[in-house]
Amino acid sequence: MNNEWHRTFRNRMHDFEAWHMAPLGTVLVSIKVRVSSGCFHREHSPRAYTLIDKQMSELVMHDEFTFEEHESGPELLVFVAAVTAGISLAKSIIDL
Q1: Which pLDDT does position 13 carry in this prediction?
Q2: pTM of the complete model
Q3: Quick one: which H or E segment has residue 66?
Q4: Contacts of 83 (CB under 8 A, 6+ apart)
Q5: Which of 12, 16, 31, 92 could form a disulfide with 76 if both were Cys (CB 3.0 to 4.6 A apart)?
């Protein structure tokens, strides 16, 4: 089970890198928001996804991130540059 999760995660990260040109000097980061119980599908959390979709539509860095939906909670795959950019991005994601 654990090996399957690692393989799936590694493939998801690889696919994101393959479909997006990584800006020079960046690293790929996965930011996962987990729910404490239950699942986090659109049909089970419509109000949450209304807020998420609104925030996602306002972001301008569409080539530098992707949003993944999972039963256990949403995940953002993001290219992060320097420490300053990472802090700014972290604040934006926390606000999201």
Answers
A1: 84
A2: 0.61
A3: strand 65-68
A4: none
A5: 31
Q: Which amino acid is at 12?
A: R
Contact present, 96 and 55 (Cβ < 8 Å): yes
Per-residue pLDDT of the chain (96 residues; tens, 9 = 90+): 578 888 888 888 888 887 777 677 777 888 888 777 778 888 888 888 898 888 888 776 566 677 888 878 888 888 776 555 556 666 666 666
Angle of CA points 26, 71, 29, to nearest 5°: 10
In contact, 49 and 43? CB cutoff 8 Å: no
Quote the Cα angle for 12-17-23, to 5°: 150
Q: Are 93 and 31 in contact (CB under 8 A)?
A: yes
